[in-house]
Amino acid sequence: MSDWIAAARAVGSDVAARHADDVDQQARFPKEAMDALKAARLLGILVPKDKGGPGAGIADVVSVCHVLGQYCAATAMIYAMHQIQVSCIVRHGGGNSWMDAFAKRLAAEQLLLASATSEAGIGGDVRSSICAIEEKGGRFALAKQATVISYGADSDGILVTARRTAQSPASDQVIVVVPKSSAKLEQLQDWDTLGMRGTCSIGYHLKAEGEMAQIISKPYADVSAQTMLPTSHLVWSSLWLGIATDAVARARAFVRAEARKKPGVLSPGAVRLAEATSQLQLMKANVVAALRRYEAALGSEDNLSALPFAIAMNSLKTASSQMAVQIVGQAMLVAGLAAYRNDTPYSLGRHLRDAHSAALMVNNDRILANTAQLVLALRDDPELLA
Amino acid sequence: MPWENIVSSSARDRVRALLKTTGWLQTDIDTLANDADLYAAGLTSHATVTLMLSLEEAFDVEFPDTLLRRRTFSSVDAIVEALTEIGVKTEAV
User: Do the chains contact at A376 and B53, CB–CB below 8 Å?
Assistant: First the structure.
């Protein structure tokens, strides 16, 4: 076990788990857990060594998400969304002094990054923008009606998508790094949801100004295909796996306690537990296989922007999000009323509500429709171990 | 049809004609150079798939897995290069 995973385990069990119910009830930012993650220096682990970070890889981040998901899904989701932004900067931001200095700050100050990709009026398609970069005298100005900036108020910086220029088509986007100090945020609504209540994914009217060097010059289409999409689907799936893992652990604890009371008598929930264990194994195998596929593709822009790769990552997301709900549901049947109640060590209400967000936040139907287009181009894959 | 490649215009012109008759670009293809970035001209990843299918239909070819990437469809030149790679005759330029 790496030091990072051990540190994440400590933050998860000692801090995140302790405040998870309160974060859920109040629908508030999980400040204690996020402060602990900063203190453990887990926010900047992706920053490479030459920028003052420890140079962790995607597998480390995915593993941390999986750990945190077992204690507080909202904390895990915030950590995951943050690392998606960091990976974009680390992988595509290099080459100018502003971006290099910002990467150093990510490690030194353990900054928390949020994202403003969705926008009012684009119909939920984050691959098109209405707002545009307005350049004037080497500086830019930007105004965006962002329908969601999760934990925007508690972040230290926001990555914002916009059209490259006021003349660019909606699909010709760039991504801009906006430190919170140079952004104005006007909150547009409140946050009261079924689950994932700690992410505070509310809309803002965002205004920002800054240097042109804050724009990642590579087209957002490439940043998205090569880094943002695969990283998102991997870190999300991994934290959903974390939710399912804890649900099955609770169900197993319940069955074991029953078995101790009546040795030799198989509790009715045990068969369901066997089923849930099998589903969990399937889900885990899927996450790990996709992670290995991404690692194998890293370093080759062609492999990362290939259609079969995009389909594999999309499919990971849609499958994992559905399996998380199925597994938590199975686990709930195992422990029955003890899981359904909100006041037992086997309670799974929060797990179930959090898991349901997986198919909705970045809607599965949208991803499936996207995949449906792409599969038209997919070729046969007849080999088991190609 | 087998005679089509001989009597019709060059592959490059046919690619341009294909791009002109569809709504995939937000810029008129006639104003774009052969090496102009089609994505910057509004080509989306969805439209790329439709473009690929239309090219397969028009040239009676099939793009192999290795060519199914963004770069293959990034300009008229890139498309023609890919078509050449999979056996389309591009003479009669």
Answer: yes
Nearest CB partner across the interface for A308, out of B40, B42, B65: B65
At B53-85, the pLDDT tens digits run: 999 999 999 998 889 888 899 999 999 999 999
- Write out pLDDT tens, residues A62-76: 999 999 999 999 999
DSSP string, A256-291: HHHHHHSTTPPPTHHHHHHHHHHHHHHHHHHHHHHH
Nearest CA in chain B to A371: B46
Cα–Cα nearest to A248, from A357, A349, A328: A328
| B50 contact partners, CB below 8 Å, separation of at least 6 | A373, B22, B24
- Contact yes or no for A222 and B69 at CB 8 A: no
Q: What is the CATH code for A220-375?
A: 1.20.140.10
Q: Residue B42 is nearest to which of A172, A370, A376, comparing CB atoms? A: A172
Given a cut of 70, the residues of chain A with pLDDT beneath it are 1, 386
Residues B4-85, CATH architecture:
Orthogonal Bundle (1.10)
Find the residue in B nearest to A375 (Cα).
Answer: B49
CB atoms under 10 Å from CB of A342, counted, come to 11
Tell me the per-residue pLDDT of A29-54, one tens digit each, with 9 for 90 and over: 999 999 999 999 999 999 999 999 99
Domains in chain B: boundaries = 4-85
Return the CATH number of the domain spanning residue range A113-216.
Answer: 2.40.110.10
Question: How does residue B93 score in pLDDT terms, banded at 50, 70 and 90?
Answer: very low
- A3-108 folds as Butyryl-Coa Dehydrogenase, subunit A; domain 1 (1.10.540)
Fill in the DSSP letter of residue A380. P
